[in-house]
Amino acid sequence: MSTITVKDLRDGLPFGARISGITSAALADQAVRQEIADTFERRGVIVFEGVEPSTELQVQISNVFGPLKDHPSKTTTRVDAERWPGVIAISATPDMCIVEIDGKPRISWQPWHFDHCYNDELNRAGVLRAVTVAPDDGLTGFADGIQIWNDLPAEAKAVAADLNVIYTLDLLYPHQRFGLPASFKELRPYANAEQILRNAAALPRAIHPAVWTRETGEKVMHLSPYMAVGFEGQETPDGEEKFHYVWAEVLKVIRPYWHSWKTTDMLIWDNWRMLHEAGGCDPSLDRVMHRTTIKGDYGLGRFEGGVKVGATTSAM
Predict the structure, then answer these.
(1) Residue partners of 54: CB distance under 8 A and separation at least 6
(2) Going by DSSP bridges, is the β-strand pair 45-49/17-20 parallel, antiparallel, or unpaired?
(3) How far does CA 155 lie from the centroid of its chain?
(4) What tens digit of pLDDT does each residue of 58-87 get?
(5) Domain annotation covers residue 311
(6) What is the distance between the alpha carbons of residues 222 and 209, in angstroms, rounded to a whole number?
(7) How high is the pLDDT of residue 309?
C-alpha cells in the first residue's frame, strides 16, 4: 500500500493541508485517493508538495476529485488539446490590464473572488501548478468562507445571513463597485474591453447566496466583491452601503493563506467554500500557470428571472 503524509497547511490555520508522497503509483491506490478526497472535503485547500512537474500527474491528481471541465472559449490557450483536454495555460498577454497596488505595477492581478460567480453553476474546484515562477511576487491567496463566517461579529451575520448577491461577467475595473483596495489604480486598461462587455451582455445576471450551509452543517460566507452588482432586491444606495459594510467586516476577520509557488507544487481549492486572490507580479516578469477545472455544482445559483442558458461562458 502506498503511503502519503498529510499535515497542516500552516500552524494555527483552521483550513488547508499539505500532502507529500504523491506519485502516479500512489494515486493508483484507492485508499490513498479516498484519503486525499476526504482531506479536501475537511480542509478546503490542499498543497501537493514535491510532485513531478508534469501535465500527466496534474490530470491524475485532478481526476481524484471529479471529471475535468474544459474551458468553453476556443481562444483560451490549451496545453495540448489532443492529449490533455481541459488543461489550459494562464500567462500574461499584451491585451491584459496592468494595475497598481500599494504603489507597485502588477499584471495578472485579481481581487478576492470565487470562480464562475457570473454563472448559475459553480465548478467544484480548480487545480493549479506553476510552470514558470516569477522571481518576485506572483503569490496566490486563499481564504476560508467557514472561518470567515465563524469569526464574523453577530451584527454582520444578522445582516448577511439571508442575502443573495447579483453578479455579472463584467471584468472591467472601472465598473467594479466593491472590493478594490484603497491603493488601487488602473495603469493600462484591457485592450479587449469591448469584447469583455459583449461577453457580459450575452449572459443574464447570476444570483448566488452570500451565505450557504454545507451538508456537514457548517455555514459558509461566500461573497465575491469582484463582479458583484449588489444584493438582490436592494440595488439602492442603502443596499450598496450594506454591501460595503458586510465586506468591510469580512476583511476584519479574514485569515488568508498566501502561497509562494514552486514548480514542484500543485494546489487544489474548493470553489464552493474558498475565496482566492491573484496577487499579480511585475509586468516585466514571466509567470505561467497550468490549470484544470473540476466539474460540479452546489445547486444554489440561478440566473435572474429563471432564465436558462444552454452553454454558459467561463472566463475565470
Answers:
(1) none
(2) parallel
(3) 27
(4) 999 999 999 998 765 555 666 776 677 889
(5) no
(6) 7
(7) 80
The CA distance from 157 to 5, in Å, is 37
What's the average model confidence in pLDDT over 95-111? Answer: 95
Q: How far apart are CA 71 and CA 174, in angstroms?
A: 26
- Which set of grid coordinates corresponds to residue 26? 500512489
Q: How many C-beta neighbours within 10 Å does residue 28 have? A: 11
Which pLDDT does position 54 carry in this prediction? 95
Asked whether residue 214 is assigned to any structural domain, the reply reads yes
User: In angstroms, rounded to a whole number, what is the distance separating the alpha carbons of residues 142 and 112?
Assistant: 9
CA–CA distance, 193 with 195 (Å, rounded to integer): 5
Task: State phi, psi for 59 to the nearest 5 degrees.
Answer: -65, -40
Alpha helices in the chain (DSSP H): 24-27, 30-43, 55-63, 145-151, 154-160, 193-201, 237-253
How many domains does one find in the chain?
A: 1
> If you average pLDDT over residues 177-187, what whole number do you get?
96
Give 171's contacts (C-beta < 8 A, 6+ positions apart): 190, 196, 200, 227, 315
Q: How far is CA 251 from CA 139, 145, 159, 165, 179, in A?
A: 19, 12, 16, 18, 10
List the domain range (segments joined by +) for residue 250: 5-306
